[in-house]
């Protein structure tokens, strides 16, 4: 053996100082990188709507909802970390993707159902991030207009050009081959998420100091002549979807865990990353939601950094929106990589001799693959066109949260853990896990109904490709 390395075959896998037990290039990630990935995925556009959520839910229900979703997400994420390897969480065979874990633990039928759910949600989030980034870009231009012409000026801006700019950047970033190359981008994106959260918190505190606490209540936005009890119910359901979306990341947890080096055990390191990542996210969520609601009261905008509850200092509002843009540039890639990888891996298995699919070409020192270039470019363009047709921030966020939360953050993690840990059917543990799953299903259904109603109402009065901030 050259350079003193040792090679051996164990259970059909290649081992060496350069390869892991599944024959792939040795993973080098640490729990700190994994934490950055989690924060990048969790603290996304969902944080921007939390003040609005508090306005719909009120002080008590808003706070309880945030904490409950945090606890449920953390619990199910910790269960999921043990499903990265099967049948043993430390020595078993690796499941490199969320879908692989489902297939190993629950079988082919559930695997197909998971694939439909996971890739539908990831596709939807890609659309949502395109909308959010364009709104933030437009907000930067609008803030300069307000600064120049006063707060009463219209300063309306078309969003489509900003969506196109975002798409061009994403086409370039999408040529990064895989998740393992995204760690630097995730760290930058995580820093940006902290920055705009801090700015939002700081601006909220400043607004409270200057103007006092806004008109708030225990139950949120009160029923009145132009806001009926039925309207209140639908808005409450939609807010639940927004909070669910704010905690949606379980569906890429396995992919994040697959970047970790094998010693210490991946599940142990991923549990540490999960606890740190979700705890940090929850603290920021509570601060943004509570302080945002205190600052704006029941008139909290759907997006508290682009809804222009804050005008001054205009440069700080601009900085916050720049941070949102940079963060979502990275978050888009973190969430799109599983889709990219699935299609490319399937194509390579289907047509292994096709050089356009398998061969890497060097262009200006950059490795280019024709399948990767064409497929990823097409995906970004398609998501951008859909975002131009349906540019509704709060309704879209709520619907994505409702569609994501139960199947991918609750049902599959619980069922996989039950299968792997061999928990006896109708035992106490099995029963309370099923009760938890059922309760989360009900929440997801009512959130989906509320968000769908809001989306349908918005579509009725909107002309496609005419999105204006």
Please sum up the structure shown.
The protein has helices spanning 31-42, 50-81, 98-106, 108-149, 160-173, 183-211, 229-246, 253-257, 266-296, 314-350, 355-358, 370-389, 393-420, 428-460, and strands at residues 8-10, 13-15, 85-86, 93-94, 361-363, 366-368.
Please list the strands of the largest sheet in the order they lie side by side: 1-2
Characterize the overall form.
globular
Helical percentage: 55-70%
Task: Estimate the mean pLDDT confidence.
Answer: 81
Question: Radius of gyration from the CA trace?
Answer: 23 Å
Proportion in β-strands:
under 5%
* Main beta-sheet annotation: 2 strands, antiparallel
Order of helices and strands: EEHHEEHHHHHHHHHEEHHH
Q: Kindly report how far apart the N and C termini lie.
A: 64 Å
- Which regions have little confidence, pLDDT < 50, spanning 5+ residues? 1-15
Quickly count the helices. Answer: 14
> Strand pairing plus helix content: what structural class?
mainly alpha
Q: How many strands?
A: 6
Give the assembly state of these chains: single chain
């Amino acid at each position: 053996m050259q350079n003193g390395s040792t090679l051996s075959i164990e259970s059909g896998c290649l081992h060496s100082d350069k390869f892991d037990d599944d024959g792939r290039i040795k993973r080098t990630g640490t729990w700190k990188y994994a934490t950055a990935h989690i924060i990048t995925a969790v603290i996304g556009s969902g944080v921007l709507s939390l003040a609005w959520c508090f306005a719909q839910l009120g002080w008590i229900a808003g706070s309880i909802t945030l904490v409950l979703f945090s606890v449920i997400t953390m619990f199910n994420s910790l269960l999921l970390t043990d499903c990265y390897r099967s049948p043993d969480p430390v020595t078993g065979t690796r499941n490199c993707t969320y879908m692989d874990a489902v297939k190993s633990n629950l079988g082919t039928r559930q695997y197909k159902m998971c694939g439909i759910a996971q890739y539908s949600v990831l596709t939807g989030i890609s659309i949502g991030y395109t909308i959010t980034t364009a709104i933030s870009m437009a907000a930067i231009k609008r803030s300069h207009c307000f600064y120049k012409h006063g707060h009463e000026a219209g300063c309306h801006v078309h969003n489509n050009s900003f969506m196109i700019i975002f798409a061009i950047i994403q086409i370039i970033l999408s040529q990064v081959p895989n998740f393992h190359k995204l760690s630097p981008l995730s760290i930058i994106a995580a820093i940006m998420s902290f920055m705009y959260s801090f700015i939002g918190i700081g601006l909220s505190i400043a607004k409270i100091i200057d103007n006092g606490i806004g008109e708030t209540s225990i139950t949120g936005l009160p029923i009145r002549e132009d806001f009926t009890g039925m309207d209140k119910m639908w808005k409450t359901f939609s807010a639940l979807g927004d909070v669910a979306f704010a905690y949606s990341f379980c569906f890429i947890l396995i992919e994040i865990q697959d970047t970790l080096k094998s010693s210490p055990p991946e599940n142990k390191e991923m549990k540490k990353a999960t606890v740190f990542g979700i705890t940090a996210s929850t603290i920021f969520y509570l601060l943004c939601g509570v302080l945002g609601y205190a600052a704006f009261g029941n008139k909290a905008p759907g997006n508290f950094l682009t809804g222009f509850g804050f005008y001054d200092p205009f440069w700080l509002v601009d900085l916050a929106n720049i941070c949102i843009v940079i963060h979502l540039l990275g978050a888009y890639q973190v969430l799109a990589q599983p889709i990219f990888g699935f299609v490319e891996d399937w194509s390579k298995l289907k047509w292994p001799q096709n050089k356009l699919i398998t061969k890497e070409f060097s262009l200006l020192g950059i490795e280019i693959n024709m399948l990767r270039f064409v497929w990823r470019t097409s995906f970004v363009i398609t998501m951008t066109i859909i975002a131009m047709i349906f540019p509704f921030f709060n309704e879209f966020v709520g619907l994505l949260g409702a569609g994501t939360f139960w199947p991918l953050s609750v049902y599959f993690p619980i069922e996989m853990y039950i299968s792997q840990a061999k928990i006896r059917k109708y035992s106490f543990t099995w029963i309370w896990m099923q009760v938890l799953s059922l309760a989360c299903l009900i929440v997801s259904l009512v959130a989906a109904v509320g968000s769908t109603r809001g989306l349908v109402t918005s579509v009725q009065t909107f002309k496609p490709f005419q999105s204006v901030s």
